């Protein structure tokens, strides 16, 4: 880990107006480390994009310091900054008549002359970036023919080709299906380790961020920015406070959020393993608290011990019913 590539001291961000100033957040103090993946989480409109734009010098800060590799951000020229920070935006760009390799080659522009001609070394960097992101099969495709997930990887390869110690990404998992979101976060985590770069991104994918990020920044209107490892934020209650909303509870055991069901009845459940967990989940989703510790006049054996693939429902009066699926089980339970 490369400690403190970015050092932030008492930073205020926002928008100067005609008479008044709109302060979006203030008093932010933090380090962002190289070799780590840092995820910025917060509700819509809380100021994540404003923060990212300020950190990348797209908009001026209202106050405080942002030091990158020891130098204040305002002391960098644009050209110097383009060799220190690369930014991956999520907006779909309408790029036509350009191949993937040509687009990634644009990442070399801080190093090329006016005409942007790539040297042999530049082409080697492009090739290496393509390999790091694992997209050699896309290299000759036209950019406008790519899927959202593929284009996102290409934009990351372009950022890698820019050879900057810092990469910022604005919601890189937006618009992706779930497996692609997981793949994208794993790729970024892997890249942070492999390249020792400082990778900082904003996201609404809380569960993924909690499982993959090294550091989490929680941004909210009341408390500003709270920073820590996902585990520390779990233990010290910051995560549960942050997402304290009716119907959502933070499960300390798993370190993840779950829907807080309201129960209207309960069923004694016998079994263990995955079948037990799935039956319990289905019943709880239907407002029935189900586990080994509750008592009830009907009882369900989840069948994992006998292993014949059925669920056994004990009804009042000693009657037993065997069913093959959780769907049937739910119907039987509702009938009783
Ligand atoms: N150019 C601007 N001038 C004044 N206020 C702005 C400007 N751009 C954004 N804001 C305001 O600053 C606040 C933060 O906006 P920002 O876009 O940074 O939030 P966000 O957390 O990125 O939201 P989202 O998750 O919806 O993308 C909002 O209240 C927004 O209305």
Automatic annotation (TrEMBL):
The record ties this protein, via SUPFAM superfamilies, to: P-loop containing nucleoside triphosphate hydrolases
What UniProt keywords are attached to this protein's entry?
ATP-binding, Cell membrane, Ion transport, Iron, Iron transport, Membrane, Nucleotide-binding, Transport
Q: Which residues form a coiled coil?
A: none
Spell out the protein name for this chain: ABC transporter, ATP-binding protein
Q: Which GO terms describe its biological process?
A: iron ion transport
Q: What GO cellular component is one of the record's annotations?
A: plasma membrane
Tell me, in one coarse class, where this protein mainly resides. membrane
Alphabetized InterPro entries for the sequence:
AAA+_ATPase, ABC_transporter-like_ATP-bd, P-loop_NTPase, Siderophore_ABC-ATPase
A Pfam family the protein falls into = ABC_tran
The record's listing under PROSITE patterns reads:
ABC_TRANSPORTER_2 (PS50893)
Report the residue ranges that make up the ABC transporter domain in this protein. 6-246
Molecular function per GO: ATP binding; ATP hydrolysis activity
> Membrane topology per the record?
Peripheral membrane protein
Q: Tell where it localizes.
A: Cell membrane
Species of origin reads: Bacteroides fluxus YIT 12057
Membrane listed as a keyword: yes
């Amino acid at each position: 880990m490369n400690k403190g590539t970015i050092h932030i001291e008492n930073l205020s961000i926002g928008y100067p107006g005609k008479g008044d100033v709109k302060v979006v957040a203030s008093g932010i103090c933090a380090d962002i480390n190289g070799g780590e993946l840092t995820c910025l989480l917060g509700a819509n409109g809380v100021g994540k994009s404003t923060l990212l734009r300020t950190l990348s010098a797209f908009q001026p800060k209202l106050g405080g310091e942002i030091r990158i590799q020891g130098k204040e951000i305002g002391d960098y020229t644009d050209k110097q900054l383009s060799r220190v920070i690369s930014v991956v935006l999520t907006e779909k760009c309408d790029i036509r008549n350009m191949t993937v390799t040509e687009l990634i080659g644009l990442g070399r522009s801080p190093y090329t002359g006016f005409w942007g001609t790539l040297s042999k070394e530049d082409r080697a960097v492009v090739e290496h970036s393509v390999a790091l992101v694992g997209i050699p099969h896309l290299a000759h495709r036209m950019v406008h023919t790519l899927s959202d997930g593929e284009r996102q990887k290409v934009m990351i390869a372009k950022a890698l080709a820019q050879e900057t110690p810092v990469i910022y990404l604005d919601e890189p998992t937006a618009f992706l299906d779930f497996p692609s979101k997981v793949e994208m976060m794993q790729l970024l985590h892997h890249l942070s380790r492999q390249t020792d770069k400082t990778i900082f991104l904003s996201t609404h994918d809380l569960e993924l961020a909690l499982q993959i990020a090294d550091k989490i920044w929680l941004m909210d209107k009341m408390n500003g920015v709270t920073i820590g490892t996902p585990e520390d934020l779990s233990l010290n209650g910051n995560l549960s406070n942050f997402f304290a909303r009716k119907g959502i509870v933070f499960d300390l055991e798993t370190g993840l959020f779950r829907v807080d069901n309201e129960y209207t009845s309960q069923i004694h459940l016998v079994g263990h393993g995955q079948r037990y967990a799935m039956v319990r989940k289905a019943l709880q989703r239907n407002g029935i608290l189900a586990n080994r510790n509750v008592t009830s006049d009907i009882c369900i054996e989840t069948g994992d011990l006998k292993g014949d693939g059925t669920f056994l429902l004990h009804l009042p009066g000693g009657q037993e019913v065997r069913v093959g699926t959780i769907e049937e089980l739910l119907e039987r339970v509702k009938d009783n």
